[in-house]
Amino acid sequence: MQRPPESLKSFADRIARAAASDEADLLVRMLRMAGLTGDFKGHGIAHFGADDRPTTVFASEPGVTPKQSRVIGIWERREENGTASFVRRIDMMETWHFWANVGRIEAKGSKLRVLFIGESVARGYLYDPSFTPAIALQMMLEKQYGKDQVEVIDLARTNLGYEIRELSLAALQLEPDIVVFFAGNNWEKKTSLPTFNDVARLEDAIAKEGMAGVKRVFDEYIERTGRTIVKEVLSEYQAGGIPIVWIIPEFNLAEWREPFTSAPYLPENGNREWIAAMKEARKALSDGDRVRAEQFGTRIVELDQGICAAGYYILAECRRLANDVDAQRTYLELARDAQSWDNSIMYIPKNYTIAQEVLREELPRYGAQVIDLPVLFKQYLNGEIPGNRLFLDYCHMTTEGIQIAMGYAASCVTRALKGVEQPWHTFVSDDVAPSPEIEAEASFLAAIHNAHRYQSYDMVHHFCSRAVKNSPHIADLMLYFIDLQAINKAPLRMSEAELEIFRLGSPLVHRYLFPNNDKRLDKVLLTAVANALEEAGIAARERLERRYREEHSTRNTETDMLHPYYYLSAGQPHEYEGLTWPLARVDYDPRYYRAYWPDSKFVFVGEAGLPVTFSLTCRLPKYSMDESNISVDCNGQPQGDLTLTKAWSSWDITVPGDVIRDGVNEIEIHWPIPQFRTAEALDEVITKLCQMKYPEYYPIYGEVHIFTASSVAHAAESPPELFEVAVSQAVA
Hints:
- The structure is a single chain.
- This protein is of the alpha+beta class.
- The protein folds into 4 domains: 218 residues, SGNH hydrolase (Rossmann fold); 69 residues, Serine Threonine Protein Phosphatase 5, Tetratricopeptide repeat (Alpha Horseshoe); 117 residues, no CATH class; 171 residues, Jelly Rolls (Sandwich).
- Helices cover 41% and strands 15% of the residues.
- It is built from 24 helices and 19 strands.
- The strands form 4 sheets. Strands 10, 11, 13, 16, 18 and 19 form a 6-stranded antiparallel beta sheet that branches.
- The chain is globular, with a radius of gyration of 28 Å.
């Protein structure tokens, strides 16, 4: 008799404990998850069965073998006069913008047919539909084969993940002469609800390895699933005698930085030491002490076992200062890979090393030509680490990056079909590029995209300046964008600024800006916009300052600093992500703020000399002392201490006018270090997964229910003391 795997034992023990307790509902959930009641189907972006093979609902026709599907993405087969073509489906109009703007894919004719399949990088995100990799490849191949002799069928899709399997197999019906894949960025475990095997593996890993085991399980999943997909897809193309080209993506290692998170639950006293080491490492870098910073960076990685990006970024910066480019690159790659397990923060597509290695190992087995962009970009840049020259953000490429990748693709196509060796750069010319106006708009969209993903001022300013230099029309568009973001009273889609942006911008702006833009205070972005315009001789700072003052000054209105409009400019994305989770998936009220780091920042707009009163309702978290103190700073100046308990407490705090600045101000709460009950907290992770709720991998340092700022009406008559507090205790 076959014995069950060892990893299932701890989960079986958990079922037994639930059976002996009052947790009847949890027991039923676990039995359903284990498949013992026969009715658990799983939900989420994708469901993974016993063999971990992904299924899909949009890449091909459900319930039909992909190669026989009437559906290829958003296109459906139509028979006319004995000829089959694929026509875009009206009922999928909501997803048309994820795909090429092509209404009809005709039956194979005499033209050379190149099938192009990939993710948003292949889609040409932020340039599409004006300029895409498929358009570039078409232009390059036409120079080789003739203008009417070749067609590139563009099946790249934004947000395409493991569904590439079904899409690729269904696309065999298009009878390609050659296929070019450009994929590997979206290979992550993205199931929102886990299967029985998922939970069993995680429980066994946590019991033996802690959070390092969680990362191992996720990495093994990425490797296992990626290998399966490559084998299943490429074996079919190989069997059909179709030449294969696969482009392995690269990442913006030099410029992109993962949004900061604290460490998840670590063994023993690891969290306390991790926090202290991080603060010391940052201070050492600020002081120019590279050796000391490197010592603390090494200790950070030892403590978290490489599952956080923060320590690797410290070490990468130390190696940059030492002019050790190879070591810097290695640490930046490790930082990119570190949090493959973490679905609690903003999802950023990336090509993990483990996915790259799967492709490098598997592709040659099917005779595929491999375009290894990490290797080729390194050669192209003479050893430099790839950054904003080749990338618009984390992985989507600039025109130069697209030209290089498609030049190599054109070279591979020519080699496979003509037996001709032609260097990639001979396919690249000045006309294989978007217009200056489109380049300017893509650059500005990149600035917005990066700012809204918590990137540095320098990176955002780079793309703002690049936009202004490419086309003068972008300046007016930027000025209206300042109005759009800074005027919070008018809803998006109902403002004069939006009408002017719509008039000035191309369809590129219409596609990316309006559907995706969040209205927010945007301190980093709008400052970068104003400075880039000023550097070009266009007045903008006074306009921004006036808008802030008129619309957001505490003189005129009370500021709710927990409102996304303000909070999204505080630079703490992990805390904001917690505010966006659906009520059904958490066992707390996500409408209040939870601090995932000992220091919490908030922003408001003030006027110099005008005192501000803050109303704060907060409490200590579950794993903390019964009573402890917090301290409050405003613009870096201490304002006093408050004594908190685990019950909600309300406080009014008055800060004098000489502390307040004109424009955006910062107020910061410093929380006490809680008790880190790692074993208890990680045990709850499995319980939450069984309850189909988000697991709590990270410690909580404090919780805030209300935090508002307003000016003191009588400030001019009676200057306040440095720190005035009115306290009322609320029942928890």
